[in-house]
Amino acid sequence: MADNLMAENAQANSDGIGKPNNNPESDRFEPALSQISYQEISGPMDKGLLLLCDHAGNSFPEGYGTLGLPESQLQRHIAYDIGAAGVTRELSRLLDVPALLYQYSRLLIDPNRSIEDPTLVMRLSDGAIVPGNARIGEGEIQKRIDTYYKPYHLRIEELVNEMKATGRVPALFSIHSFTDNWKGKKRIWDSTILWDRDPRFACPLLAALEKEQDIVVGENVPYSGQLKGDCLYQHGTMNGLAHALIEIRQDLIATPEGQSAWAERLARIIGDLFAGKEFDEALNEVKMYGSHTDHTVGSTEY
Ligand SMILES: [Zn+2]
Question: How far is the CA of 161 from the centre of ligand 1 (A)?
């Protein structure tokens, strides 16, 4: 996809969160290299916010074909989070903050799982056998960890370190979408916030979303944000960085218009939050809250 590409060096500046970046130079993209599992939208490192999109893409690296799945399955939520990439890109532009998007399908290897999680590589997903995963051994899984999973997580670490080096501790905001229907049951929420024990970002964000008149908001549904080893556990909880994960119902962001509308809503809300001194100061600090998940493992998110 032509818009799915890596941004060129945006100018660093400190205009503050919520100020759209109108510099056309930073909107130029260049193709990602095929073996690189992530796409990066560069932006100012001193804004205190890094956007993450773990389930942005439904493509596969060369040599994997479609893991034996028909195209119809790749367009479903089992392959990626429909609409999440578009929201992330637009939110990155509106807030003028960097973003990292995992471009391959979660079916190749799920970057939002710990390496020990049994759902790291799904052999069966929502009733569909994944032929290219069904009979693979430890060697192939390790290869995917080394080639695709680890580089994404290393790049998050590097970006966090670069951002901290500016003197500003970044918060992490992860953007996902969920299916409107699960096992025949309609899901009522328009959007939900998932979090573990660090309330600094998640709670004010949840409160602000609940004030929106036209949406139904949930907390730690339809899955829990308390999953040991997931992306925000690895980079937020373990490093004392404030973080929050948003889930948006996929039918609301299936079109570019829906993605823009949600990005605008989130840019307004997050911009307002960062404009508050107390919120801004709380996030700009390394603080360890620990995790509710210390004695639990496993969950399935779609
Ligand atoms: Zn997701």
Answer: 24
Task: Look at the chain and report how many structural domains it folds into.
Answer: 1
Look up the CATH number of the domain holding residue 18. 3.40.630.40
Domain span at 186? 6-295
* Average pLDDT score over residue span 246-254: 97
Q: Is residue 26 part of a domain?
A: yes
Q: Is residue 1 part of a domain?
A: no
| pLDDT value at residue 186 | 87
Q: What distance in angstroms lies between residue 52's CA and the mean position of ligand 1's atoms? A: 11
User: What is the DSSP secondary-structure string of the chain?
Assistant: -TTS-EEP-PPP----TT-----GGGG-EEPPPTT--EEEE---TTSSEEEEETT---B--TT-TTTT--HHHHTSTTTS-TTHHHHHHHHHHHHT--EEEE-B-TTT--TTS-TT-TTSS-SEETTEE-HHHHT--HHHHHHHIIIIIHHHHHHHHHHHHHHHHTT-PPEEEEEEEE-SEETTEE---SEEEE--S-HHHHHHHHHHHHT-TT--EEES-SS-S--TTSHHHHHTGGGT--EEEEEEEGGGSSSHHHHHHHHHHHHHHHHHHHHSHHHHHHHSS------GGGG-------
Ligand 1 centroid – CA 248 distance (Å): 10
Percentage, residues of the chain above pLDDT 70: 86
In the reported structure, the alpha carbon of residue 144 is separated from the centroid of ligand 1 by a whole-number distance in angstroms of 19
Interval 127-141 mean pLDDT: 92
The band of 222, judged by pLDDT with boundaries at 50, 70 and 90, is confident
pLDDT given for residue 241 in this prediction: 98
Ligand 1 centroid – CA 178 distance (Å): 7
Cα 167 to ligand 1 centroid, rounded to whole Å: 31
pTM above 0.90, yes or no: no
Band of residue 51 on the pLDDT scale cut at 50, 70, 90: very high
